[in-house]
Amino acid sequence: MDSDGKFMEKSFRIVLCTLVWLATTLNTQAEFSRGQNYEPSMGPSRYEQRQLYRDAMHYITSGQRGRYLKIRDALRAYPLFPYLEYTDKAYRISKQKPADINAFRNQYQDTPLANLLVRQYLHNKGKRGQWAKFLEFYSAEVTSQRNACYYAHALSKTGQKEVAMNEARKLWLVDHSQPDECDHIFYLWRISGNLDPETAWQRYLISIKANKISLANYLVRFLADEDRVFASNLKLVHRRPLNIANIDNFGHQHAHNRELILHGLIRLSRSKPTIALDLLNKYQNNHSFEKNALDKTYVAIGKRIVSRGDPESRIDELPVNITQFPDLLEAMARLALQQSDFSQALVLINLLPDNLQMHSRWQFWKARILATSEDYADKKAAKVIFTDLSLQRSFYGFLSADLLDQPYSFVNEPTEISEEELISMEKTPGIQRALELFTIGERSRARREWYFTTRNFSNRERIIAARIALRWGWHKPAIQSLIDAKAWDDLSSRFPIAYHETFTQEARIADIPLNWSLAIARQESAFMPDAKSTSGALGVMQLMPATARDTAKTIGIRYKSSSELTNPSVNIKLGSQYLGQMLRRFDNNRILASAAYNAGPSRVAKWMDATVPFDIWIETIPFAETRQYVQNVLMFSTIYGDRLVIDQPIIFAHEYEAFTDHRTAEIKLLNANSVP
């Protein structure tokens, strides 16, 4: 090495030693948060630590452990040092000894990393067949699908065969494929004679019910010969339910045949519920169905009949005690409302269990019905209920306030938190780790750290933590922590005006109400940029990639891939534009546009019925998810209006008028002159 090289290496060592000394003797604080007693740090800044952390993580994951060890001590005081230690051990998991794992678990038991490392260690020991060491560390807290398989195998290999076989049976009887790690214990379980014909049939049945056809096809090999005909018929009626109408083909008196008949009828009821009901009545004459299964089938068919409006008035034919099935009662009550059969609706509401009757939903509808009565006592009772509801901050509370011409009850009472409490909480190691992970973009790890740290907090501690998250611009965990704390009246924090400038600009460009677009985002993701639904919707406003692509094309902006939807600016721009399209398509009616944003415009156009009042239309939206979605969005929009000092009603006049409008009549019935 030449003299310049030696000099540079010596200089690097001096700088590194200085960094190590400073890092291990001084605890740095993020400059982002300064308390009243703030003093500049003498050590490396948090910004410098983050860069060093990224370098260290790169060294570990790229096989340059020696370089990591050189800078390791310089990061000991950095909040994310445990993540470096975890990654270092996880990448060398096969070299870890029990003492190493125990030491890490004890040192970092206040982090989610302790269990994660044990989980990795368990998988390694299971893969290597080191069963004694596996059982030494295994517990329910550190299990996973793969390790659950290894656990059963470990039991079988250590003389605990009966327990092992019971665990194997639990693993077998699921409606999804298990990981390859289960193959060996399943083999041992089968050759030990534990896979009896009934167990094989039950897994085939639950797989078909879960629509896992590929899994069911695989499971056929384990069925008894006499059950394969039933399996073939089950798959037939699952795929082509109308085949169940061939009653002569399903006359065999066998439990499996009865199960496939009931499944086929439930499948048929999705498209032809009245035919399914007629067939079930016929089948019941020839088969001895188990009562609970029979009742559930009648109820499932009944709910389908109700969802189609029961044009032939068949629902009363159901041979079940409807009071035992609240979900059916609620469906029937909604149908009665839709048909303006208010006396029947009231009867059904009164049959609901007490806890449901007292819910604001059914209290509102009880009052709505009583308000239309000509009986003075009914009108008075309605006004009492509406008055009580109007004091609630809810969809039905706001509607009740409108009917009584009263102001909305927002009740925004934030908990008083001192700056000292905030600074103290922010110094909590788990909170620091979560905030650092959030800052460097490791959002999934950040959420896991946050929820792990706050899981045992008191309600006040959760509220303080939520305020810190909001200060850092991290809205989702803040909202969730406030929900966990039951801080319902802290509206300023529960309904943050996130990405304010972006939402304002895009709402202005798309020509939509700002409070409405904020309400949509609050309902969709709680402002979580990397949110991803099971259906594939992404980002703050939960856009489907195809919708985003079409919207981008319509407004003429460049859109490369769905990965852009995790960028809040892009997501809010496209989401706002799509909201604008829905709003204009449905004549500036937020009720219909909100439903369309959730369920699709074609469905909403099909559902639209201008012959019923708006509140009945919302209450009878066929999809329960969309029904609740619309109610939440309208309520949230009203709350955001209050937060933005925008005086807006929950429902505008033109939105009422798109439906049959009974407001005037109801208000007349409830005014001070007629009902004291």
Record keyword descriptors for this entry:
676 residues; globular; mainly alpha; Methyltransferase, Methionine Synthase (B12-binding Domains), Chain A, domain 1; Lysozyme; 0% strand
Provide a descriptive summary of the structure in words:
The chain has about 675 residues and is an all-alpha fold. Among the domains are: about 120 residues; about 70 residues, Methyltransferase, Methionine Synthase (B12-binding Domains), Chain A, domain 1 (Orthogonal Bundle), CATH 1.10.1240; about 150 residues, Lysozyme, CATH 1.10.530. The protein is built from 38 helices and no strands. α7 crosses α8, α30 packs across α36 and α33 packs across α36. It is globular. About 5% of the residues have low confidence.
Q: What is the CATH topology assignment of the domain at 500-649? A: Lysozyme
In round numbers, the mean pLDDT is 93
Give the C-level CATH assignment of the domain at 500-649.
Mainly Alpha
Beta content comes to under 5%
Class derived from helix and strand content: mainly alpha
| Amount of helix | 55-70%
Which regions have little confidence, pLDDT < 50, spanning 5+ residues? 6-26
Number of helices: 38
- CATH architectural group of the domain at 500-649: Orthogonal Bundle
Distance between the termini: 99 Å
Helix/strand layout:
Layout: H1 3-25, H2 46-61, H3 65-72, H4 81-90, H5 98-107, H6 113-128, H7 131-137, H8 145-157, H9 161-172, H10 183-191, H11 197-209, H12 213-219, H13 228-239, H14 255-269, H15 273-286, H16 291-307, H17 326-338, H18 342-351, H19 354-357, H20 360-371, H21 376-389, H22 395-403, H23 419-426, H24 429-439, H25 443-454, H26 459-471, H27 475-484, H28 491-494, H29 500-510, H30 514-524, H31 545-555, H32 568-585, H33 590-599, H34 601-607, H35 614-619, H36 624-643, H37 653-657, H38 663-670
